[in-house]
Specification:
This protein has about 350 residues and is of the alpha/beta class. The chain is built from 6 helices and 17 strands. The longest helix has 13 residues, at about 315-325.
């Protein structure tokens, strides 16, 4: 299986640069994974495809304003860092640019010294370990100094930080948003619940490894970075009971999917707990828990388009993407959505 099998041509102007004013006003493509039949709807029409007894699974992770701009003490040179993974209360694994001159012992100041960090180590792929010093509460300082870590294909400045958060974001820790969830409003979720659809929340803190380009031509040689997940006991019970009763488990986003598939036994029982997952789902994978998926449109040759292809079949997915380009859907984080059922 070749990485190039998952490529497609995308006109630059179809990459959504800004979120829509009304979250739920995006378009929604419906893809029947059995027949390949496609229909074009609006996201609020999602209610037509849900029914009492279903369970919608959402990822309640909250994106940290994890991009910080600082200066090297001594030289005043500009430094950009991206917080990737919290190791202790004050230590983080970070992506640092420019990295070559940021060696262990380098001191960096942010916000006129309100936050300071020292590089203590260099780890995998050149990432740095930084130990921070500050007075007060780290999260409050980060909220004041940090910017949302928007993907590099988004070049517009985000006016409102909350537009890169889902309305149900709660557990801080992500380096990127679970973007399929950006389409939901509180009103739409309330309407869905009133229909008798259960809503379960799990947590997976999205790491940038999810979006790391696949640099090998043989898909099976790609290695995923690990991400931290949590499935609470009551949520595991809710999802398992849905399956037992014949209802569908509908994941909102690939992050919810990876959480359930990581935490499920081979015979399809979801286990409560927490841990790290580096699950890589590509065609040939047998799904244990997910029955339907709400997702955005993903980058060519990415692990995410491979996951979607594992669920619906590569030919059907690539045909759906061709249709999306022809019909001028909006792509990627702030773009339109797809329901695969």
């Amino acid at each position: 299986m070749k990485t190039s099998d998952f490529g497609y041509e995308l006109p630059q102007e179809l990459i959504a640069q800004d979120p829509l004013e009304d979250r739920s006003s995006s378009r929604l493509m419906i893809l029947d994974k059995e027949t390949g039949v496609i229909s074009d709807e609006h996201f609020t029409d999602i209610t037509h495809y849900l029914k009492a007894g279903d369970c919608l699974v959402i990822n309640n992770t909250k994106v940290l304003p994890a991009r910080l701009y600082g200066t090297k003490e001594g030289t005043g040179a500009s430094v950009e860092i991206l917080l990737l993974k919290r190791l202790t209360a004050d230590e983080w694994e970070c992506l640092v640019r420019p990295g070559k001159k940021c060696r262990p012992g380098t001191l960096i100041s942010f916000g006129d010294g309100r936050l300071k960090g020292v590089i203590t180590d260099i780890v995998d792929e050149g990432n740095r370990i930084i130990k921070f010093e500050y007075e007060g509460i780290f999260e409050e300082i980060l909220d004041a100094l940090g910017e949302m870590p928007l993907p590099p294909y988004i070049t517009h400045k985000l006016k409102d930080k909350n537009r890169y958060q889902t309305v149900y974001a709660k557990e801080e820790g992500s380096a990127a948003a679970p973007t399929a969830g950006l389409h939901f409003t509180k009103e739409l979720l309330a309407q869905i619940e009133s229909m008798g659809v259960k809503i379960a929340h799990v947590t997976l803190h999205v790491g940038l490894g999810t979006f790391r380009p696949v640099k090998v031509e043989d898909v099976t040689e790609h290695h995923m970075h690990s991400e931290y997940y949590v499935v609470e006991p009551e949520m595991a019970d809710l999802i398992n009971n849905t399956k037992k009763a014949g209802g569908r488990v509908i994941c909102v986003g690939t992050t919810s999917c990876r959480t359930l598939e990581s935490a499920s036994t081979p015979d399809g029982i979801l286990k409560a707990g927490s841990g790290w997952t580096d699950i890589f789902i590509y065609p040939g994978y047998k799904f244990k828990m997910m029955d339907a998926l709400i997702t955005n449109f993903h980058l060519p040759e990415s692990t995410l388009i491979m996951l979607v292809s594992a669920f619906a079949g590569k030919e059907k997915v690539m045909n759906a993407y061709k249709h999306a380009v022809e019909e001028r859907y909006r792509f990627f984080s702030f773009g339109d959505a797809m329901l695969i059922r």
